[in-house]
Amino acid sequence: MGRRCTFWLPKKKRFCAYPPLPNSELCGNHTKRSDDTWIVCSIDPSHTVLESNLESHLKRCPLLKRKTSLSLQPFYQKGINGGEDDDDDDDDVTSELKRMAVHSMSTNQFIELIEKIKSVHGLMCKDIRESYVVPETCRVWMDQAINWKIPFQEKHVIQQASILGNLEKHGVLKAPSIDSNGEPIHSSADSSNTPAVVEFGAGRGYLTQSLADCYGVSKVFLIERKSYKLKADRSLRQKESLMLERLRIDIEDLNLNAIESLQGLPYLAIGKHLCGPATDMTLKCCVGEGVAKSYLRGLSIATCCHHLCQWKHFINKGFFKSLGITKDEFHAITWFTSWAVDADHGSDFADTTTHNEKILAEVDMLSNMSATERAVLGFMCKDIIDAARFMWMRDNGLESDLVKYVPSNISPENHLLIAKR
Q1: Are the C-beta atoms of residues 390 and 315 closer than 8 Å to each other?
Q2: 355 bridge partner residues
Q3: What is the structure's pLDDT at 365?
Q4: What kind of fold does domain 99-420 have according to CATH?
Q5: pLDDT digits (tens, 9 = 90+) for 185-201
């Protein structure tokens, strides 16, 4: 193997793969020039350019072309689902700022916030039940999809099956007929009667792939702001009479009503592990003011990354205001949720409702909390955030539910918001 550039790439956690220049340890891209400096591209901060080349680079930056193309699309409307901040502050609050705010609390402030969390959780989160459901129509698909040599793939398949099972249990999906081999039978008539599927934060699109394989669909819209390899698109496009559109756009900027091929159609909105504010933006996109609500047939969102939630994006700020919880306390609650993945998620948390009282009664200050105590508090905060979302859905005319769709040892991010019109 030939020599490689010795420049370390922190984001990729490896050295540069290009060959170095003669008589140098670095390649041409990373050789420092005495008369020039590398600066961050003002269009796309993910890469850097030489300061002397900046002007010409800005005219041909790949992201510029994509942004220009996107801005011309009828469904692009900057910030339509972004929400508003009471303080007219458009900046997101970083995790570091959240951490600093928590550590700057006095003992009394911290204890008071813990008491608020305990009280709200006791009132609002007792009925979050476990609902791990594997529908009969998914069993053969699961056996075929799971590669037992790749444990993480097995976990994803289990999660996908339970999301579909809960949709069927909630009356959003209709179970197809099963043949003698246990495989679902799909006809063109069945597909034409099913709603279109809009997957938010679709990633590679494997949740939609499982839905199409097990239940049959006729129209699919995959919403994702990033570009991915190894997508399910190729397999989906091979299905007869299935129309697929992939829209590379941030959910914050998506006007769902302006997608021409979706207009007038009933649709099912789904999302698996929608990180932080993406869940709130999706809810606003599908159910918010001005949305053609009559076309939404059902909705299923597996929430994720509650520590990234932002006050300005959150869909139900009124819920926290009514409880006397401030914007800063909300951000502290979101920061606590990161502790839910810091400890073992087995039998210790089988009944957190009874265990919480004992543990949190002993908490005096942040520095005195054990890993288990932090995890319990983190799970409580995750429950509260999703309970507020569930209440917003219910208040907006949806027959809604909030369940734990897989055991926490499969994924600690196991909350599923589900609703039907």
Answers
A1: no
A2: none
A3: 61
A4: Rossmann fold (3.40.50)
A5: 776 555 556 789 999 99
Task: Identify whether the C-beta of residue 314 lies closer than 8 Å to the C-beta of residue 283.
Answer: no
Partners of 223 in the β-ladder: 200, 247
Smallest Cα–Cα separation from 337: which of 283, 287, 279, 395?
A: 279
**Token code pair at residue 378:** 């983190």
Rg of the Cα atoms in the chain: 24
Domain-by-domain residue ranges, the chain? 8-71, 99-420
Residue 54 has which token pair? Answer: 């900046």
DSSP assignment of 16-82 equals --SPPPTT-SS-TTTPPPTT--EEE-SS-TTSEEEGGGHHHHHHH-HHHHHHHHHHTSTTB-TTTTS
Return the H-helix or E-strand segment holding 209. Answer: helix 206-215
pTM of the predicted model, to two decimals?
0.82
Q: What is the pLDDT at residue 72?
A: 87
Q: How far apart are CA 279 and CA 81, in angstroms?
A: 11
Average pLDDT, the chain: 85
Listed in sequence order, the residues at least 6 apart from 152 whose beta carbon sits closer than 8 Å to its beta carbon are none
d(CA 100, CA 128): 31
Contact 403, 128 (CB under 8 A): yes
Nearest to 191 by CA among 236, 141, 242, 233: 242
Enumerate the H helices of 72-173 as residue ranges.
95-103, 107-124, 139-145, 151-169
Q: Which of 301, 324, 3 is nearest to 163 (CA)?
A: 301
Return the structure tokens found at 372. 């288990």
**Tokens of residue 290, six digits:** 């001005």
Q: CA neighbours within 13 Å on the CB side: how many for 376? A: 24
Q: Long-range CB contacts (< 8 A, 24+ apart) of 107-113? A: 107/364, 107/365, 110/365, 110/366, 111/363, 111/364, 111/365, 113/329, 113/332, 113/333
Residue 291 Cα to chain centre, angstroms? 21
**Rounded Cα distance, 359 and 98, in Å:** 24
What is the C-alpha to C-alpha distance for residues 279 and 313, in angstroms, rounded to an integer?
A: 9
Residue type, 340: A
Q: Judge whether 337 and 381 are in contact, CB under 8 Å.
A: yes
Burial 86-98 (b: 16+ CB within 10 A, else e): eeeeeeebeeeeb
Sign of the alpha-carbon torsion through 131, 158, 201, 290: negative
